[in-house]
Amino acid sequence: MKKFNMKTRLQWGWFKAALLGTAIGILIAPTAGEIIGASGEKKDNTENYISTMLSSISFGSKVKVMINGDVVALAGSKEAGEEAFQNARLAYNAKGVQILDIDVTYEEVDKEKDAETIKGMHLLRNEKLAEAVLDSFDKYAEADKELAYTMRIDDYTVTIDSMEDLVSVLEKAQGAYDTEDVFKVGLKPTASRNVTMYEVDVTKKEAKDIEAGAEQGSTQTPASQSVSTEMPGSEAGTQAGTEAQTEDTGSTTESPGEPGTQTEPPSEEGQIFPIEKNKRVLLTGAEASTEGETSSEGGAGDTQASTEGEPAGEGTQAPAEGENAGEGTQTPEEDEAATPPSEMLPQAADDGIKYVGFSETIQVMETYVNKEQIKDKDTAYSEMTAKNAEADIYVVERGDCLSIIAEKTNMSVEEIKELNPSIESDDNLFYDDRLNITVPTAAVQVLVEKQETYQENYNEEVVYQDDDSMYIGETEVVQEGTPGSHIVTDLVTYKDDMECDREQLQETVEVAAVAQIVKRGTKSKPTYMFPVTNWNVTSNFGYRWGRLHAGTDVGVPTGTTVRASRAGQVITAGWLGGYGNCVIIDHGDGVCTRYGHLSEVTVSVGQYVDQGQQVALSGNTGRSTGPHLHFEIRINGEAVDPTPYLYQTQ
Question: Which among 11, 296, 447, 489 could disulfide-bond with 453, CB atoms 3.0 to 4.6 Å apart, if both were Cys?
Answer without folding.
Answer: 489
